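tl;dr need the bound structure. longer version: we got a ligand (pyridoxal-5'-phosphate) that a collaborator sent over and nobodys looked at where it sits. i said id run it. heres the input, straight from their email, havent touched it
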Amino acid sequence: MDRSKIKKLDAEYIVHTYNRYDVVADHAYRATITDVNGKEFIDLCSGYGANSLGYGHKAWLDAVKAQLDQVQHTSNLYYTAPGPQLAEKLATRSGLCKVWFANSGGEANEAAIKVARKYGNTLADHKKNTIISLKKSFHGRTLATVTATGLAEAQESFGPLVPGFVHAEVDDAAELEKLVKQYDPCAFLMELVQGEGGVHALEQSFVDKAAELCEKNDILFIDDEVQVGIGRSGTLFAFEQYGIKPDIVSFAKGIGAGLPIGGIICGPKTCDVLVPGDHGSTFGMNPVACAGANVVLDTIDDAFLSAVKVKSRFIREELASMKKVTGLDGLGLMIGIDLEGMTGAEATARLLEEGVLTIPAGDRLRLLPPLTISLEETCKALAAIRRVLD
Ligand SMILES: Cc1ncc(COP(=O)(O)O)c(C=O)c1O
């Protein structure tokens, strides 16, 4: 189908919750997408961070195709192998206990919120159910996760929102302590590296204080690793670099490598909170998505993570030497760029013309390349970025 026909159908029949860029993807390999008219784009967006292994990763494709041939779906009424295998890997490598599977990040955080509410209402030393999240945070588009999100533009027009959520200032430990006294929360919900709000890695001292408050006050620490998790930070989970142990970690995006999957990993306090009948998801633990995700986790070993760190250092050093770049934030291959005289949105539009796909985050320019991006693709993309930012 030609591009004008595709765009016409999209305009006529799709509910427009996204403004699309003028790229009509036809096929893709590694970190390069080819448009239907043959133009190539180096993808430093990787499907909002979801295509962790890039495009056409052979072992992932083989596993997904084999599982499709075997059994594509059964519902959670029956056993299949890939989900429990994946859960064992996630629990072992996170040092936590059990996994509940969903299909997206929003659904994962919704589950985390329900676990925290049930824990606070029925299991904590006294009843409590307020959740403190952060300003500029993003946790999803369901009503509860939109309420937890600290971006007003995501909430406008959708009131009344869900009661029992409070937003704290980013990196303000004193305020967080005050809010704990005032609201007696059952949980904190935080992205250790905020994504949509502008790619900001929380300060270590703030995270330390949050963890200390959790310990002292029986507050659950929910670590939203939907964007930064599964290797993007340079460790499998970003919490490893902060030296904390969350009670719940939510994940999605990168673990699917392009298929929809998400979920939560629960620690000792939270792993038995939900019981049959409490929660569910028809496609949760889908064997095809889990078969692919098993390959993702098997691929992201120590050598792979070292390579992510090397790529991150190289890209950051190059970016730091460009004239319009005034600051860098984020962790690993989740990179936020402060620009002089240009917004992230303007830079994204200019880079598109140069054949590089990026995304804005707040006023910043954001890079979320596939973790497997090659040196050749990286250098080509950096040369284009230099043309725009130098
Ligand atoms: C940190 C974080 N949490 C949750 C979500 C929501 O994930 P999904 O779009 O898969 O529902 C996102 C999406 O960008 C995210 O970045």
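gonna send this back to them w/ a short note. The longest strand covers residues 325-331.
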